[in-house]
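Quick one:
INPUT:
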């Protein structure tokens, strides 16, 4: 019998990965092969080749991205804000170690600088080597890989500001906790041009409604424009996921201008993703 990696179980001749959410939900995935498994100074990292979802990135037992559906999250967290801002030049990505968000941002030829600040270099290396369906083995010269704490990075002084900031964080546990705090959002505001905007993933409205609402409250205390939008991501608990955008100026998307090669986002999605179901509206603060 093979030695089982952390978070895996062997049942007969089969290998199963179990993701546990809030101690209330367990989701099992049948695994073909453990492609990569290492512990970094920050977290446990695995690339698992699954039967249904293909290769998947797992951090501390939680799925971050998969070959089957990873493009949904990465397209939604990038193309929506980049469609709202009329002329982005400098983009900052905080997190996003699977390189999927940076890969989508790089589809915009007008963008001159893409700073990707990821605390864990091992995640980037593993994703570029073993999860190319998501990372595309990203090598665009405009992408500057900066391996450090994102909360520390946004406190530094630079001679330039950003037009769009994308916070592609994991759930608010471990090294990602500080990426959901008010102080961090204030630092993001200070790193944006006078017409800049930011976006972050804001969790499941089913299982983490309090976190979603808290993110909205914190951003509303800083940004004049705050909007929430949604997408369906099959591998995330509940399948229904939210994103929250904070903008200094721009409010409305421009779907007719969208012309990128994507699998999920299109003009109709850009129009419809801000249309929220009633139960989500009831949770949010209205102006």
């Amino acid at each position: 019998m093979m030695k089982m990696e952390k978070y895996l179980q062997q049942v007969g001749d089969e290998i199963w990965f179990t993701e546990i959410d809030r101690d209330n939900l367990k989701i099992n995935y049948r695994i073909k092969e453990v492609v990569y498994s290492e512990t970094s100074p920050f977290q446990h990292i695995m690339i698992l080749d699954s039967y249904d979802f293909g290769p998947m990135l797992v951090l501390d037992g939680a799925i971050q991205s998969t070959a089957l559906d990873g493009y949904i999250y990465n397209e939604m967290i990038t193309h929506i804000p980049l469609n709202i801002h009329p002329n982005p030049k400098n983009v900052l990505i905080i997190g996003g170690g699977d390189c999927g968000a940076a890969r989508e941002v790089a589809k915009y030829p007008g963008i001159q600088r893409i700073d990707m600040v990821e605390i864990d270099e091992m995640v980037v290396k593993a994703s570029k080597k073993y999860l190319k369906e998501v990372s595309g083995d990203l090598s665009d010269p405009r992408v500057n890989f900066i391996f450090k704490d994102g909360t520390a990075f946004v406190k530094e002084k630079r001679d330039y500001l950003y037009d769009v900031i994308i916070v592609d964080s994991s759930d608010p546990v471990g090294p990602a906790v500080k990426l959901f705090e008010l102080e961090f959002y204030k630092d993001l505001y200070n790193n944006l041009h006078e017409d800049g905007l930011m976006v972050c993933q804001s969790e499941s409205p089913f299982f983490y409604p309090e976190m979603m609402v808290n993110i909205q409250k914190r951003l509303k205390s800083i940004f004049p424009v705050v909007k929430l939008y949604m997408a369906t991501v099959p591998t995330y608990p509940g399948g229904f996921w939210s994103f929250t955008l904070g903008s200094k100026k721009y409010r409305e998307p421009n779907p007719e201008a969208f012309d990128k090669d994507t699998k999920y986002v299109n003009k109709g999605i850009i129009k419809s993703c801000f249309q929220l179901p009633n139960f989500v509206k009831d949770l949010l603060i209205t102006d």
